[in-house]
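batch job 7 of whatever, protein = isochorismate synthase
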Amino acid sequence: MIDRLRQQLAAADLPDRLRQLAAGAPAAAPVSLTLDLGKLDSDWLHQLPAKAPFWYRARPQRGEFRLGIGHALQVSSSGGNRFAALDNAFSGLCSDWRHTAGEPPPLAFAGFAFDAANQNPLPNALLAVPAILLENLGGRCRAVLTVPAGRIAQAADEWRQLLAQPARPSHTLLLPAAPQALTERAWTARVNAALRDIAGGKLDKLVLSRSRRVEAAGPFSPALILGQLAEQQPDSLLYAHGQGELCFLGATPERLVRLDNGLAEADALAGTAWSGSLSLAEQKNQHEQSLVVQAVVDALAPLCAAPPQASPATEHPAGHLTHLRSRICGRVASGTTLFDLVRALHPTPAVGGYPSGLAQDWLAAHGEQRNGWYSGGFGIFTAAGDGELSVALRCALLNGRQAELQAGAGIVAGSDPQQELAETEAKLGTLLTALGPAGELDRNGTRD
Ligand SMILES: C=C(O[C@H]1C=CC=C(C(=O)O)[C@@H]1O)C(=O)O
């Protein structure tokens, strides 16, 4: 497959095809050439680069796999106007974008942190057009090669170099973890503080998160972890963004919002059940999820031509966990962008709390710390203005041999601190298992 792409990169007419596409475009305009790679069954994980930035997004159950390698163009932002800033930059870029006629529009990847100020350690909000996009949609594979119009002369060499440095995945052993008792007590104390303020009528819901740091004998391999997640959670959306030693990755059950031809579809996901937990039918779980439905409907309504509609909640699997999920749909008013929807929705009470503004103030005042893009967003934006963002849950931030895992739980009236602690453990467990618990690895670090 990659050999077929290499041959096409060596074709003598490639620079001419790019120049024809770019005719009359400003030097900074993206130029994207789509090449057909035929029918094949690849998840692209073997092509994850060792050093170049990359983006991975896959839905294994639907046979949908995308890998972006290198950045042809990128823009980052932070602060209260971060979504508006990216929206402006992206719409400017789209107005000049030249791409192969008759092919689906090319796309950009984006990721952002929960908190508009956090820069730890990824850029707060980042949007990037990959230099090489490898797509496998239901077995049909293609490559989309992108270069700014002013850099066509050196493009083929740069693309070849990006393909020449795939990472070499190797298994590693997790080192014994530090005792958790103190951090667990500190977290439970915050849950009790949240319960007091909820009982006092200040808020209805707060989502409190915990983090767990783990270390391995050797560097973690994103490709192996993503492969594990695909097996564990085939119905979730896999995502990753890597930059050198750093990689933020996970498998999330929750969509933030999708925009397709004017139709917006968002998830209201909350309430968690696993073997031995409270049932999703319990009042506490139903209440927790109904607050998310209400907030999503309220956030979408001003952007929709008619009131958005919410489906009844159903059970939604996520590996060994199950959640309650409703889907909220609405036709957006003309001129509404995907970034407008993100700005209106984020953070939903699935990751922040309810009411949203008060919950965010409470979390900031109580030292809630969320690193990387945990509980922020991750997704794609097409040159036609459509796209889809997911809520970045069930994730790990890898840095060489270190990994930080984060997970949270929604606290409402009636929450039991010990049950909520167990819930965060169950959520952290999804990533811990994928990182490779020591018990499952032999002395050489290979799996049974
Ligand atoms: C905040 C997380 O999950 C959210 C999504 C589904 C169910 C949740 C819950 O039951 O609390 C959370 O709202 C997380 O996984 O870190």
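notes: The longest helix spans residues 181-199.
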